[in-house]
Amino acid sequence: MFESLLEARPGPGVQVIAAVLSRDRTCTFPGCAVPAFRCDLDHVRRPSPPGPGATQETTDVGPDELISLCRHHHVVRARHGWRPELAADGTVRWTSPTGHRYVRERLGVAQNRESPVIRS
User: Fold this and answer.
1) pLDDT, tens digit, 9 for 90 and up, residues 38-77
2) What angle do CA 86, 91, 97 make, to 5 degrees?
């Protein structure tokens, strides 16, 4: 019953969602520990609009294009210009609006390579 509802909705499929949640475990913003299952899925890069004749198959996104962000950090990213980069190993490198870089390791451990961890 619910499978048909999930298949009909736009956005990533159930398998992609499960892969992202399993990889991220928590919000990927440095210092945040909100569990990934309570987070929004956000594109690492803004998706380009589908061209003429695009189908669902050609517009699907994969887990390598999405990260978990709690609602608060989703808004912070959108309003304040934070930029994430997702590495192949699941590490997320964040660049702040001032150019400082922060690294969020794959298993939910926040680390900073250049300046203090941000408190959110």
Assistant:
1) 999 999 987 766 666 655 554 578 999 999 999 999 999 9
2) 60
